[in-house]
Amino acid sequence: MAETSPKKRKPMIGLQPEGDVDWSEYRGVLVVVEQRAGVAKPVSWQLIGEAKRLAEKLAAPVSALVMGANVSSLAQEAIYYGADVVYVCDAPELEHYRTRPYSRVCLHVIRQFKPEIVLMGATNTGRDLAGAIATHLPTGLTADSTELDVDEDRLLLASRPAFSEKMLATILCKQFKPQMATARAGVFAPNPRDTSRTGEVVVVAPQMNPDEIATEVIEFLEEQKKVNLQDAEVIVAGGRGLGSPAAFELLRELADALGGVVGASRAVVDMGWISHDHQVGQTGVTVRPKLYIAVGISGAVQHVVGMQNSTWIVAINKDPDAPIFKIAHYGLVGDLFQLVPALTKAVKSRKA
Ligand code: FAD
């Protein structure tokens, strides 16, 4: 059977428009910027940084899409972080995220400007929006990617842990464009904010009249988070080695002395020693602090995947063969009940 040209592949499923599609028109990497109340989520700038790296390999531009109400200033920010072109849809009906009006704008921009890759944060909003768009186009979507690359055929190589982290699956979307992926916050590094960068801003009209939108946001209640791991520069995280919930007090003292917050492994969250918003890892939060101190944590792959990009990792564990030492920059082998108070004392005495 003759091979179909990679540029003119016939769609394999019936949802696509009839006939051959010329995918070669699709060029560049588009990042959908997520914001709330006009404040961009850091994952948006992290993805623009990663998009820039991919776009350099593709010799193609990076674009960003900003949607919301009173969000035009974010266009300039997107340019400072690396976007060459920013599409802005600024309308009162986009004040709060709703799937249909947001996905209509995304679909319009994708169909009109034809990016070959579309990236979004793997946040609640990003997961909802990316799924809706991929279904409508239709195209393939790799959720929760932890590594992104492109090959010589301009195919996106989106890797993500699979089979309970036992393997890393690299997923390709060979038949359709754009190739879509979501990635968690903290996985990629943003480019430094460069205020000398310039770019083009393209204004996009909303694609639905307000009276066509079936859902209405009555009130928006901000979730009361007890801890903000994602923005913390220092995290002191505890695991089963603490032996009891009371021992978290030792970690809080060290975290306070260092101006940080307390994190945790899933084992202690599952035992009810600390709430889930403290959990770092595959089913918790992905973090990228300047300093991560892992106390009584063995270093299971599901934990490591959430903190391995920390700038400095210090591990405290009584078992010299604990896997956490393989990724730690500094390891303290010993009893945490002696080492943690000694560290806290040392930090406090340096500050005094
Ligand atoms: P343990 O593995 O029991 O390690 C305790 C450590 O404490 C040991 O290394 C021990 O030597 C040390 N220790 C004991 N006493 C002392 C002492 N006095 N002083 C110093 N050291 C001491 N885990 C996560 O953390 N985050 C996730 O998001 C996550 N998601 C998961 C998703 C799936 C699908 C699955 C299957 C698992 C997931 N897990 C996750 C669980 C993960 O596999 C591990 O079970 C868990 O991370 C282990 O937690 P721990 O390191 O606290 O406990």
Summary, kept brief:
This protein is an alpha/beta fold and 352 residues long. Helices cover 26% and strands 23% of the residues.
| Helical content band | 25-40%
Integer-rounded radius of gyration: 23 Å
Total number of helices: 9
**Regions with pLDDT < 50 over 5+ consecutive residues?**
1-14
CA-CA gap between termini? 78 Å
Estimate the global geometry from the Cα principal axes. Answer: elongated
Q: For the residues shown, what is the average pLDDT?
A: 92
Label this structure with key terms.
352 residues; alpha/beta; seven-stranded parallel β-sheet; five-stranded parallel β-sheet; 9 helices; 17 strands; 23% strand; elongated; disordered N terminus; binds flavin-adenine dinucleotide
Give the SSE layout.
Layout: E1 29-33, E2 35-36, E3 39-40, H1 42-58, E4 62-68, H2 73-80, E5 85-90, H3 99-113, E6 117-121, H4 124-136, E7 141-145, E8 147-150, E9 156-162, E10 167-171, E11 179-183, E12 200-203, E13 234-238, H5 248-258, E14 261-264, H6 266-270, E15 291-295, H7 301-304, E16 312-317, H8 324-327, E17 330-333, H9 336-351
Parallel strand pairs: 1-4, 1-6, 4-5, 5-12, 6-11, 7-11, 13-14, 13-15, 15-16, 16-17
Antiparallel strand pairs: 2-3, 8-9, 9-10
Helix pairs in contact: 3-4, 5-9
The chain binds flavin-adenine dinucleotide.
Family: Belongs to the ETF alpha-subunit/FixB family.
Keywords: Electron transport, FAD, Flavoprotein, Transport
InterPro entries: DHS-like_NAD/FAD-binding_dom, ETF_a/b_N, ETF_a/FixB, ETF_alpha_N, ETF_asu_C, ETF_asu_C_CS, Rossmann-like_a/b/a_fold
